[in-house]
Amino acid sequence: MNSFDSLYEQIGGAKKVRELVEAFYARVQAHPLLKPIFPEDIQPVMEKQYLFLTQFLGGPPLYTEKHGHPMLRARHLPFPITPSRANAWLECMHQALDEAGITGEARDQIWARVVMAAHHMINQPED
């Protein structure tokens, strides 16, 4: 790897993104704050997250090709995302990054980006 490789390439491409998504949603489905805002059938959500993270990390623009511009905040407005839920989401992602074995500078860069995204999604104060 060199410093010009995308984060997607640095972490191992499609296989590693899939691994991260699977580790993440196992935690989301078990989390008492997050489970209620996700559908019972999590597979379509997992597939969208896979497409999104691939693109978000500098891989092929799979999400845009299939669903158009991500418009993250707008697409999440129907869901009550409080600061506690954003933090729970981040907790699940942190653990998923651990499980997927994503480390080093690439992990630090991914973490900085997901922290910004999670805080940007907050659309309601605490209940």
UniProtKB/TrEMBL annotation:
Family of this protein: Belongs to the truncated hemoglobin family. Group II subfamily.
Residues reported in the UniProt entry to bind heme: 119
Keywords, in A-Z order: Heme, Iron, Metal-binding, Transport
GO molecular function: heme binding; metal ion binding; oxygen binding; oxygen carrier activity
The keyword Transport belongs to this UniProt entry's keyword annotation: yes
Cofactor(s) this protein cannot do without: heme
Protein name: Hemoglobin
Domain of life per record: Bacteria
Keyword Heme assigned: yes
InterPro entries tied to this protein: GlbO/GLB3-like, Globin-like_sf, Globin/Proto, Globin_bac-like_CS, Hemoglobin_trunc
